[in-house]
Design goal:
- Helix content is 42%, strand content 27%.
- By secondary structure, it is an alpha/beta fold.
- The protein has 3 domains: 3-129, NusA, N-terminal domain (N Utilization Substance Protein A, Chain:P, domain 4), CATH 3.30.1480.10; 139-197, Nucleic acid-binding proteins (OB fold (Dihydrolipoamide Acetyltransferase, E2P)); 276-364, 2-Layer Sandwich (GMP Synthetase, Chain A, domain 3).
- The protein has a 5-stranded mixed β-barrel. Strands 1, 2, 3 and 4 form a 4-stranded mixed beta sheet that branches. The chain has a 3-stranded mixed beta sheet with strand order 10-11-12, sandwiched between helices.
- Helix 2 crosses helix 4 (102-132), helix 5 (201-211) packs antiparallel against helix 8 (256-264) and helix 9 runs antiparallel to helix 11 (322-331).
- The radius of gyration is 37 Å and the shape is elongated.
């Protein structure tokens, strides 16, 4: 070992922020293990590394005894007093036992320790950086795709995009640049594990924040998002300023803002609706683009019965029930959709049933009177 190592440790301390004392302590611990492996595992030894010169010395800790039974752990009183005249039986004393060729082992071990500590420090920095960025959008390059799992190169590290975090109609190829949402950052034995998503509802929210200044500035608020990634989404927005139209702000001049988001999502349809405190109005808005005739609320069941024009029924329900399903998810209310004809028919049945019950009551009353 030499002063060059100490100089290198000093540079590492400046560049990476790892204290030199921490590195020296780690090297000493590793050298202690290396010595026991190569020169005797039963010995109780300490390894000291000079912080100025880099010189390494090994000391065996032995108990002073009058009669030695195990020379690996004990030393005679006579031999001990040659080192320290004042020792007594039962005292412990350190005797230097540095092997002649220990320098080579020390140099190799120190190199391995430094490399390991640098890797650990790098992993810690990456974990701290990306854990602080959890919930943000990052841009990366598809590194490879293995068993439907996409590995994304983020520069200093890689991220994983699981099948459920991918947009179903997208095909990912190596070298392709993509934007994704950091959904989770985990600390593992192999280093930080970063998960990114393009299907997450918050990915859509972040895209709106990037495209719509009014959302970024807090004038317009996204109240709720219901998303079926790659197919269709509904976004409920409200304004904190009466002068600002929340829907118009999100759509943008000539629709440019929402078009940029749709382009990023490869054609995913996006319905932007106005949020309302009035739950009836909110549910009616959520079923856009369908028109709504009436909304009846059942608070206890948290269910709404919605009547739409006959010709709008299929539009209100949507293909495979998608529009109604997204509206229910957006509002967090169960929605039962009926056409005007169905509502009238059900209403007629209820009237007829009511008339029947009344007639039965009258007959019962007459019988009692008799």
């Amino acid at each position: 070992m030499s002063g060059e190592l100490i100089q290198a440790l000093g540079e590492i301390e400046k560049e990476r922020g790892i204290p030199k004392e921490v590195l020296i302590e780690a090297i000493e611990s590793a050298l202690k293990t290396a010595y026991k492996k190569n020169f005797g595992s039963a010995q109780n030894v300490n390894v000291e590394m000079n912080a100025a010169s880099g010189e390494v010395r090994v000391f065996a800790c032995k108990t002073v005894v009058e009669q030695v039974n195990d020379d690996r752990l004990e030393i005679s009183l006579e031999a001990a007093r040659q080192v320290n005249p004042g020792v007594q039986p039962g005292d412990e004393i350190e005797i230097e036992v540095t092997p002649a060729d220990f320098g080579r082992i020390a140099a190799q071990t120190a190199k391995q320790v430094v490399i390991q500590r640098l890797r650990e420090a790098e992993r810690t920095l990456i974990f701290q950086e990306f854990s602080e960025r959890e919930g943000e959008i990052v841009t990366g390059t598809i590194q490879r795709v293995e068993q439907r799992i996409a590995v994304v190169n983020l520069g200093r590290t890689e991220a994983i995009m699981l099948p459920q975090d991918q947009i179903q109609n997208e095909q990912y190829k190596p070298g392709q640049r993509i934007k994704a949402y950091i959904s989770e950052v985990k600390r593992t034995a192999k280093g930080p594990q970063i998960f990114v998503s393009r299907s997450h509802a918050n990915f859509l929210k972040r895209l709106f924040e990037l495209e719509v200044p009014e959302i970024y500035d807090g004038l317009v608020e996204i109240k709720s998002i219901a998303r079926e990634a790659g197919s269709r989404s509904k976004v409920a927005v409200s304004s904190r300023d009466e002068k600002v139209d929340p829907v118009g702000a999100c759509v943008g001049p000539r629709g440019i803002r929402v078009q940029n988001i749709v382009k990023e999502l490869n054609g995913e349809k996006i319905d932007i609706i106005k949020w309302s405190k009035d739950i009836e109005q909110y549910i009616a808005n959520a079923l856009s683009p369908s028109k709504v005739v009436s909304v009846e609320i059942f608070e206890e069941e948290k269910m709404a019965r919605v009547v739409v024009p006959d010709y709008q029924l299929s539009l209100a329900i949507g293909k495979e029930g998608q529009n109604a399903r997204l509206a229910a998810k957006l509002t967090a209310w169960k929605i039962d959709i009926k056409s005007e004809s169905q509502a009238e028919a059900e209403g007629g049945m209820m009237v007829a049933q009511g008339q029947k019950n009344t007639a039965e009551d009258v007959r019962g009353l007459s019988a009692d009177e008799e």
